[in-house]
Amino acid sequence: MTSISPEERSPEDASPAGPRGNAHLLDGVTGVDHRVAILVEARGLRILPADPSAAEPQCPLLWPWSKVYRPASAGESMVFAMLDAQDARLTPDGADHARAIRDRATGDERRSGRQVFGLTRRPSAAVAIGLTGLMLAIALLALAPLSGLAARLLPADTGAASSDAVIQTLAAAHRRCVGQEGLKALEALNVRLARAAEINPPQLTVIDWKLVNAFALPGGRVVLTDGLIREAEDGSEIAAVMAHEIAHVIHRDPMTAWIRQEGVSLVLAVLFGQEAAGSIASTLTGSLLNATYTRDQEDRADRTALDLLAATGISAEGGRAFFERLRREGRDNAVGSLLSLMETHPGAADRAELFAVADTGDDPGLTEEDLAAVKRMCP
């Protein structure tokens, strides 16, 4: 087996101009893939930033061997972690360095989570199930209601950077629709509805995605898909959907959902560690918490949307027609917040009935010419 002397500095590790880099480091804080040089020393694994133009990694740069371990989730990959930087991950370029680190690392992954009542990161299955149920019950009764209060106390643009990153990811996969005439028509409708609500107009994005959907994100972001636009048979249908998403922005529903989900993840991380928390939260938290609150949020957003339509004189008929068509086609839950569990939304039949009995006006929201321009946005 090839070994590396504790204080050895190979040519690829360092040079007169500085370290050249022989590994990749995710510091668990910035999300940046740092190019680094690693040195196998007697005390531990030394990490040297290899890119002088990049910010220094936000994690310890000396990993004592007693705290270095290979995460179980890494499988056969030579990825290493450190107890004092639980989310950091180091991947050496070469097999020699990887073997040298593996042979010296003595960290215990079970110690990577904070102990609570003497429990380690991997409690027995029975204890894990019981504690999971207990913590989710606590979250359901306490954290979820408080998340709404916290969301209302935060500035309206909180979370905008994260939302923009989500939109950028979507745009990379489906591209943005940039037809100027269509964007101008949608923006005029957006401003009209936002003024009725006495809020700043949300930042509006249209994605060339065949999925029929629309959703609001934290920080005042609203996304429409081309699939939804092409589904619309009248301008008032798009107006009703936009009013619904602007209502989510008014009530800070996306931020409420974000705080609730992230808060529960943090609680679970204390018990089980970051990786286990992500798995548990994704399978249990959404179904338990969103089933209680998302339906209420959606009902409230529909009613607020009707208020906005009434204030602007836009017909609610479009909302009725749109949801009725979804009901007939068996797509009850096609429209809703991306951060909410879709199956907990009110059914399309209920939503169609709500819009059917509303007398909000007879303006279509978008003229036939404007609607045609909007439909041409994603050629």
What does this structure look like?
The chain has eleven helices and ten strands. It has 379 residues and is of the alpha+beta class. The protein has two domains: 89 residues, PH-domain like, CATH 2.30.29; 229 residues, no CATH class. The strands form two sheets. A seven-stranded antiparallel beta sheet has the order 4-3-2-1-7-6-5. It is elongated.
SSE pattern = EEEEEEEHHHHEEEHHHHHHH
What class, by secondary structure content?
alpha+beta
Estimate the global geometry from the Cα principal axes: elongated
Biggest sheet strand order reads 4-3-2-1-7-6-5
Please state roughly what percent of the residues sit in beta strands, choosing from under 5%, 5-15%, 15-25%, 25-35%, 35-45% or over 45%: 5-15%
Average pLDDT: 78
- Low-confidence blocks of residues: 1-17, 114-123, 274-293, 333-344
Helix content: 40-55%
Number of strands: 10
How many helices? The count is: 11
Instruction: Report how far the terminal alpha carbons are from each other.
Output: 59 Å
The Rg value, from CA coordinates, equals 26 Å
**What is the number of domains?**
2
Describe the sheet with the most strands.
7 strands, antiparallel
SSE layout and pairings?
Elements: E1 23-26, E2 33-40, E3 44-49, E4 62-64, E5 68-69, E6 80-82, E7 85-92, H1 95-104, H2 125-153, H3 160-174, H4 180-197, E8 203-207, E9 214-217, E10 221-225, H5 226-231, H6 235-250, H7 253-272, H8 274-312, H9 317-328, H10 348-356, H11 368-375
Parallel strand pairs: 8-10
Antiparallel strand pairs: 1-2, 1-7, 2-3, 3-4, 5-6, 6-7, 9-10
